[in-house]
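Schema walk-through. Below, the input block comes first and the output block second. Nothing else is stored per chain. Lengths vary across the set, and this one has 752 residues.
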Amino acid sequence: MTSLTSAPPASRTSPERTPRSRLRFWRSPAGQPRWARPALLGIAALATLLYTWNITSSGFAPYYSMAARSMSVSWEAFLFTSLDPSATLTLDKIGGFLWPQALSARIFGFHDWALVLPQCVMGVISVLVMYRLVRRWQGPAAGLLAAGLLTVTPVAASMFGHAMLDGSVTMCLVLAADQYQRAVRSARLRSLLLCGLWIGLGFQAKMMEAWVIVPALFVGYVVAAPVRLRRRLGQLALAGALMFTVSLSWVALMTFTPERDRPYVDGSTDNSAAAMVFGYNGFNRLHAGLVDGAAPVSGNGLWGSGGASRTPPPTGSGGTSRNPPRTDSDARPDGTDAADGRDQGGTARRPSGAPSDGPSGAPSGRQSPAPSGAQPDGSTGAPSENTDRKGRAGAAPAGRQVGSEAPSRTSLWLKLLRSPRLTPQIAWLYPLALISLAMGLARHRQAPRTHPGRAGHLMWGTWLVTAAAVLSALGNLPHTAYVAILAPPLTALSAAGTVALWRAHRAAAGGPRAWLLPAVVAVEAGWTIHLASKHVDFAPWLIPLLVAATLVAVLALAPFVASRRTVLVGLLAGCVAMFAAPTAWSLSVLNERYGGSAVDAYAGPGNDPRISTGTRTVRASDVRVPTTPTPTQSSLLEYVEEHDGAAKYAFSTESWEASAPYVYAKGTPVLPLAGLHADTLTLTEYRHLVATGDLRFALVTAAGTKTSKISSWVASACAEVDPRAYGATGRGGDQAPAQTLYHCEPSDATSH
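--- output ---
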């Protein structure tokens, strides 16, 4: 068997290391076969093609794209990852994944392709680094196969082609594993620190999901690093300290910045970044109420109801709940929230000198959200009426198709094996990866402690098992892209196992061991055919091809075949039998119909939810988010900008959805009075903004004047602006209530 250690560095005099030869990037470096670099470039080209094919039509995810727009025009919003340009309200998660998108939009302008471009780059980087990772471990052939398999993993093919947070954390974890591999082979602290840095950056992208890799790296380093145990533990402690420092930097920023100088933390009931990160987006998804102060999570955990907090929400001194329970934004498809008829509560950053509500503790009083996208002219803005409050177009509740019954706990635990929504995106390589893991650990059971072959199988196997356990424990997965964290270990183990099986087959001189490769091919192909059989209408030629390739592979790889050429044909047929199905699903993204959407990652058929609009059923991916304001909205915006003087906010709206068209248009500093989980201001705080001249205009719906204290006060205290003043022809439109523009003078705040 070939050595599993990396090749020695080329000498300084090697012609492959001269500056002139570096320009010939298509040539393999010293220590690698001539075909390695050209093949890698071909795989990278395929990845680039898949990820960028739909870049100009990828669409927007309303909630996140509005934040990206805000962050692209305001450095304060960029720092705090705020939903609005005025940095009044954060997202319901750390928005570090939006930093590259916001920078891209600032450079190239706000377009859907500008938001997707960083994700495409991250995808290609992940593929290239995966090659380097597996090449060091199992050689260039396995490295190329791993890079190729990651490229044609369906969830990755769709995910890296859209602006979503999972692509960022996937790249960070692959880069962390790359630095860990350097560290575990040489015990270099610098590489281990860089590993901790990448995990910390991954935390900024998707919070605790980035820590899924920590057990694998910890176990691998403790077992295999070539230094004494005491030094290993010391190095891990330093790397862990750096990892936690980088991971918690945003939480610390929000915690130690005075509340009046930072945005309110959505996703929490007490303006706590820690509660939002570790409660709403963390432990409370396993069991309701584990972390106090977090917005309620609806039905995600296996061990709790998920519908209410363990303790009642905090109340004001008058006993009024500041934050009644709201449903998880990830789990509602219809744009409503379970707290309709109740105030959403939550205090935001108070303007300097703003008084509190006093003994009554009365919040703003918004009892029901404004209809999504209601505009002054009666038209709908962003997001579309077909999206939920988070902008997820037509997503099924809690990871199931609309109209299906709630799954049992057993089916939730087995969803990675049985879910028709998840398995076609990630499950193709399960048998091959698990067989490879078992074979690798068995093959190296007598190897020295520091043997890189055993260390690699230990790390990748621990990553795979830990990630699968966490995803299973989460119960319902609202987004398919969650399973992308399984892709690196699955592809690495599958590639290593395939190459190892081929080497063992060539070395076997008959006997039972010679049947191992054809047996594994048959098992993997059988599982693949099982998954493909659930979608026989998609690529109907696929199953016959898989059956034929399996038969050819088993016969050609049988021990009684002596022809070298026939055996090579068997290897090729075996690869077709094992890998043709995920490749076909991934290549389907070249057809926009099968490419997924900006709100979820899926390649192939059967995963585009159908949603009812009342009169017809449409595909979720057909929903488009308008980012260009209507003529009336443009006229209203021009009018406000002309008459608002030096006001800090152009105007207020009753919800973030109603603010979206104006933020998309010019990055206008609109004040949304409600996010996903909490109101932004109380009535007292709102009146203070009017009294100081920071706010002069307000957009209010007729429904809002009956349910919201702020809207009711605006309608009674401020002057209605004649729609003709900004060119509106009327308030018509029977799909959503019209919004009325009001002008508020500082004297209004004190006279009413």
